[in-house]
Amino acid sequence: MIVTLSPAKMINFAEEDIEAGQTKPRFDKQAKELNSLLQNLNMEDVKTLMKINPAQAMEVYQYIHGFGSGKAPEKQAAFAYNGIAYSGLNVRGFSSSELDYLQDHLVVLSGLYGALRPLDMIKPYRLEMQIKLENDKAKDLYAYWKPTLTNYLSERLLADDKIWVNLMSTEYTKAIDKKKLPEGTQIITPDFKEQTDKGYRQVVVYTKKARGMLARFILKHRLTSADDLMAFDEEGYYYSQELSTPNNPVFVR
Asked: pTM higher than 0.70 for the full model?
């Protein structure tokens, strides 16, 4: 299985001793190219483009101008991302051999780096896929990345078993042209719902963590079929046969 996750807006590059391998991002050249475009923006431009507050704009502006300086800190992507999904993934709980497996089966899409393996070294950044950053090649990041990322995911699926478990948000899923994936690819898109007075509903904050937990469950147990996902039962979730379809398993609690 190839599992995909969205990146996190929150990042942590604090000094710490991480005993894990280090690899170079596949699309490092493109990341530098996009960052060069961002360097043409002033702080107000950054604030407006990314729809963030002044303090966040200052931080992102510093990321942009420190990116190519040689002084920016670097960290493995799966350890640098600090969002809710990554608390569910809990990569620090993986053994060395499990990290090797994670490296071969988890892909994180990124507005700046395109696609990342867990141990790819990244620098501090913020660039969401939906941001309308015009460039010489395309009108926005979707148009810039879609052919490249579709080809990349196709390569990964062909080298595996053509099963894609998509645990990304809609924002990042749109960066893949599903119609151009290898013939016979099985796309599995799990959902997570909470029981309320009005029936089962999706709650975004819980869904984010559940995506990370399911990714962890798949990769820790090295699952190989869609049916194996039914055993997922972390933090009170259980598989709902009634709400599920073969390619859209639903977990409720």
From this structure: yes
